[in-house]
Amino acid sequence: MSQLLGNAFSAELDWKPKTPTLRTGARYLDSLTADTAVDVWGAEVGEYEGVTADEIFVVLEGKAEVTFHRTGETIVIGPGDIVRLFAGDTDTWRTIETIRKVSFYVPPVESGS
Q1: Closest Cα partner for 68 from 84, 90, 52, 41?
Q2: What's the CATH number where 98 sits?
Q3: Is the residue at 99 inside a domain?
Q4: Which structural domain range is residue 47 located in?
Q5: Which is nearest to 93 in space by CA: 85, 7, 16?
Q6: Residue ranges of the alpha helices (H) in 1-113?
């Protein structure tokens, strides 16, 4: 078994419609423990709201503006930026340039679990 998980720049993402105006995609790479995951994620230009997982990510390429509803803070992120998200928070993403990031996160617990 190789310890190379993949290349974050060339990993093919599984693109799906997130909203009528935005497509996002992800490629699962591995898990660090039974309840954590590592993946590459991307979003095309557009806007959407979502609920966050407990996550730290590094932006590889692209640019986005993220507004955190709980704090009212808005940040603009791009290559090299490292961002911390907190489980259960809501935010609005406005992707300015198609973005790609590597995420280390704890997936949200499915309701009914």
Answers
A1: 90
A2: 2.60.120.10
A3: yes
A4: 15-106
A5: 85
A6: none
